[in-house]
Amino acid sequence: TVIQLYAYCFLIYSMLSWIPNIDRSHPAIQFLYQITEPVLDPLRRLIPPLGGMIDISPMVAMIACFILSSIVSGR
């Protein structure tokens, strides 16, 4: 369950990038960035942006979390 919640954090992170006027200094958003960036930063070094603009690292991290969750739960 914790791994799945972490996966949803990546989904929320991605959706927030679509909102241009969001206050990135809000404590909830800062917390989200603090828990996702340690995973996303190394992924960004491995996976270049598509077309030079589209960052797919949150999607890769989310899929990896769901796969890991399935392995751990035995499904």
Number of strands: 0
Coarse structural class: mainly alpha
Please give the count of helices: 3
Distance between the termini: 13 Å
Q: For the CA atoms, what is the radius of gyration?
A: 13 Å
Features:
75 residues; mainly alpha; 3 helices; 69% helix; 0% strand
What does this structure look like?
It is a single chain. The mean pLDDT is 92. With 75 residues, the chain is mainly α. Helix 1 runs antiparallel to helix 3. The protein is globular and about 40 Å long. The protein has 3 helices and no strands.
Structure in a nutshell:
This protein has 75 residues and is an all-alpha fold.
Chain-wise SSE layout:
Layout: H1 2-16, H2 27-46, H3 57-73
Helix pairs in contact: 1-2, 1-3, 2-3
